[in-house]
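Notebook entry, structure prediction.
Reason for the run: the old model in the group folder had no record of what sequence produced it. Starting over properly, with the input documented here first.
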Amino acid sequence: RRGTLVMINFSQRNLGSNDAPLIRSAILTNPQLAVLKLGYNNLGNVGANLIAEAIHVGGGLIMRRSGAVGGGDSQSQQLPLQQQQQQYRHHPSLSVLDLGFNNVGDEGCTSLANLAVARNPSLATLYLSGNAVGEAGALALADVIAAGCGLTSLHLTANRICAKGVKGLMRSIAEFDVTMQMAQQDRENRMALEEEKKKRVMKSNNGNHTARGRGGEGGEEQDAILDSLELGDGDDGPDDFARLSGFKCIKELHLGGTNMESTGCLSVSNMLLTNLSLRVLCLSDNGLNDQDLSLFSQSISRNRQLPLETLRLSFNKLTCVGVETLMNAIWGSKTLREIKLDNNQIRDRGAQLAAVVLTSVELEVLDMGFNRLTIVGIKALMKSLAENCSLLTLTLSGNVLDTNASKAVSYALAYNKTIQKLYVDHCSLSYAAQRHIAAGIVSNSKLALRVMSGFPLGAISVTLGLPGAMENWTNEQVLKFIRVMWDRTRHEREDASSGEMTSTIGAPEAPVNATSVNSTEKEEPKSGPSDPATVVAAAKGAFEALGDAGGALLLTEEPQRAISDTSPMVSSDAVMLEKTPSGTVRVPSLNEYPHEHFHTSSHETAPLDTSVSHASHASVDSLCTANGKSCPETPVDPEAKKRNMEWLRLHYRSLNEIIQLPYVYADLLQLYRYFYSSGEVDDEDSVHDGMPPPGPGFNLGTAPSPTPQKMSGLQRKISYRGLDIIAGGKSSMTIPSSNFSHASESSSKRRPMSEDESMQPPANKRARSGKPRIDYFPRLKAQVESCLSSSKQTKALILLRQLKFVETTMFQGSNPYCDQSLQVEPNEPTALDAEIILIDMI
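New structure, fully documented this time:
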């Protein structure tokens, strides 16, 4: 099917201008295409011209008569066809276009501006960073912005547009923003005037009825009032706000490395005086000094309605003098959330000023890296950080942290409850300094830290008495273990306190004094560092609860980078995404397209072959091709294939709904233990709470111990809500035993067997195997372990949930975990069937 693609990502595919016609065809044949990522190729001006033309005509042709524009009289409608004007609609859906680092110059930028951007309400993000755009290209963009367009995010970083290009852009942005403000004000005035007219008419009608009761003298007065109100009938046409409907003001502006210098910065400052839309502004690497920053700060302080949220001033020539003017300007800001001042010369005085601002501005990101800070500036920042409740990311990289400075960092990390990312790279941390920082982290029972760089936290934590297995863990694993550790400790304390309360029920009443009541109300742990003995005991208990597979289960999702840090869209494994008729978005499968769509010439398809390798595609004749990888196909019986397709048709919606379930770490832990344990379970073994009992700690590829471990406090909190939904909405999710018979047919007690029966094998049982369940699905096992090793824990959970759903619904009354060499009934599903279904869905 053509026309269903919503996202194409061909970044870093070594595409050239010869591949531009294929991209143009993709744009024209996919009206739902919303994201087109082509960064880090070499399309050049030729490719930019073709893409701009495709966007310009992508919405189809509009036929308009030259005399009927704005008129509509019958005489103009009788004009000959030769006088009709041809006008094209822009592509109706494309909102993100990434052409960064493609060697696009002024010619290509001008084509994009005139054809793709001009008066196009759909295109919202244009990413042109790292190209060869100069003044001419910037001025072409400025012209179309002034006339109106849908752009809200413009990326021109690392383009030498210089001061003249920046000046033209700032003038156009300021003019259009003022135009929108005036149009909005005019709309509000019109609405107020119409409201006033309605009130006056109603008032006059009431007066007219009263006058008629007295003899009808009010009729002439009413006519006079209505005549006066009809004077404004000429203003009933569309106002400026309606004319600009669909057009938007620039909200994100990235001008780093544009060589604007002082003249360009002055233009930016003048633009900020009247702007009411800009939220993100990047002026990094432009050689700005304290005087430039002083003028910039004056504009911010004079325009208190500016909704600025992110300000990046990295790699300039700023000192504490300019930073002081900036901090005075942003003092008390209600919108500012991010400031980057790294790679400047602000030193300790600038750090002290930033620490003071943290008390009045709810900053979430602060970057003070490579600013030659010493113990004085570090102490000021850390004292403010210890009490701060808003900061999420702090960068101190490139500043030397000696033992005293590291003690200050340790103090802040032991008390802070909100910071999630800390970067201390290239800080010359000694062994003692690393131990101080690690001690502050592990002793914080309310730790929120998720990302930390600068030194291996696991190896240092082992020297503080934590389990030795943590030495080879990543920092993200260690931090997640610390959070799980303290979470488990809190649950145990809650259980202990609830147990004490229940034990007192029925006991003789004792005299109550105020001191005992106050002591019970203050059992919540105080903020601050815990003592070393408590830390070591908590770590030991949490590690024993996780078992031998704890390191793999503590893998975290890789932190997502902000949109403005890279290309406009977060990178995805999928090269293309399409929208199905039901409205869901998925990776397209090539087996759904007719063969003739792919029988093109070799010179046309060769450039794109590497990019399509990531897309999920299956063979037309078989369902066994796995996600575009060269997996050997297993011959499939036609009847089994038909049966699998029928099963998938019935349960496809349920499998898709599983993807939408929220991530629950407890579900992953439970499913991991289930599938990595053996399928050899005795019939009389009961299944508690509708789930298999979590097996003991085991290594991959080895059978578990025959004696189950005792349930720990960490496992007590496992939630089965998501797994219950997987089971199809049943009140209790029954997991089959080794022969997968219904729970109602099994019994907890064995009946005595007769002598004849004991001599014959059970009718519905097969030989059992001691290998883990997941080994019966080798390709799915490879997918799960690949996701876990690459920190894609959510994808691993989706696969295991889908596999559990297939196991529960497909293998009712049969056992897939058996020796494959045994004869199987013709209509009985096997593990291979389940694997084929799920692999082809990926």
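Summary: The chain has a mean pLDDT of 75.
The old model has been moved to the deprecated folder.
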